[in-house]
Amino acid sequence: MRFVHLFLFVFLLFVSISCKEEKAESQDQPLEAFRGEVAATPVRIAKAEKRTFDYLINASGKIEAAEQVKIIAERPGYLIELTVKEGDFVEKGKILARLDQTESLLNLEKANIELKNAVATYRSEILSFESIMNSGDEERIAQVQEQLKAKSGLFSAEIGVKEAKMDVDKTVIKSPISGRVADLKTKPGSLVKSGDEMLEVINTAALELKVKVLESDINLISLGQKAEILPVGGGEGISGSVRSINPKVDENGLVQVNILINGGKGLLPGMNARAIIRAPQNNSIVVPKEALVYRSQRPVVFTIEKDESKWNYVEVGKDNGKEVEILSGIESGMTVITSNNLQLAHQAPVQILKD
């Protein structure tokens, strides 16, 4: 019986020692042995490049005519003729409308009569200064003439004729620019008051897009800078250039920028559109946007070293929607991972996919 107990004790001791040795042996196996058993993650790659980076400033606004004039009646009167309709193209100087001239022509006739009377009075009075007129003293002669013109009312009469002619001219309304007629507000036979808006003339050949840009981006914009115009209603992009920049920031922290549209066939004033203004940044390290991921709210770019992924914290600059500017964290020429990097670990085996 004792022999049996002794045999069992020796057997259990042998089993225990064997298990400990096996466990110790398994713990001593290098980590690389397990890493070799993990399947490599297939990834796509790109190169980090140091080059010009196009930062894109997006802004929306409305299209307006670069030349758009409201035609205002400068004198009251009945509209006896309207020579245009909405949509008509007119050249600069074309007659748009005529007001009744009866009163203005009568006033011009009165002014001419007053001028004739003043001339007659002046000539009559100057006869009394014949000796001075024949003296040859030009300074004295000019002085007497000025005094007699004022006394006879000749100066006032001459101004009266000019004013009457201007009033007649105001009855004929002409286009100050070339363009298309819009927003007719009067009809023939209606009474027009001084200051009434009659119509608009819009130069649709010269259109501009007025947009609001963040004050933080305004230093990246300059006159003549290229832009792409994208109508909200769809269609191909149209080229443009920055025409003017308002030197004032509004209450919302925005600055108005006017972009001249090159061509703009099919566009009309009042349409909504979006502008993409290109602001090149020189000597930037650029990677595809897909290479950037966030871990614990920090930006990370994975690179490849010896067929393994390497985790790199980076400082991000500007983003144009396709590419990202990297200010620090990686160097130009490094191979960056652009796919299957959302859950990728540091020093994970990777396999580069070939297109």
TrEMBL record:
Residues 68-201 form the Multidrug resistance protein MdtA-like barrel-sandwich hybrid domain. Pfam families: BSH_RND, CzcB_C. GO terms for cellular component: efflux pump complex. One of its GO terms (molecular function) is efflux transmembrane transporter activity. InterPro entries: CzcB_C, MdtA-like_BSH, RND_pump_MFP. Residues 285-340 form the CzcB-like C-terminal circularly permuted SH3-like domain. Belongs to the membrane fusion protein (MFP) (TC 8.A.1) family. This is Efflux RND transporter periplasmic adaptor subunit. It comes from Aquiflexum gelatinilyticum.
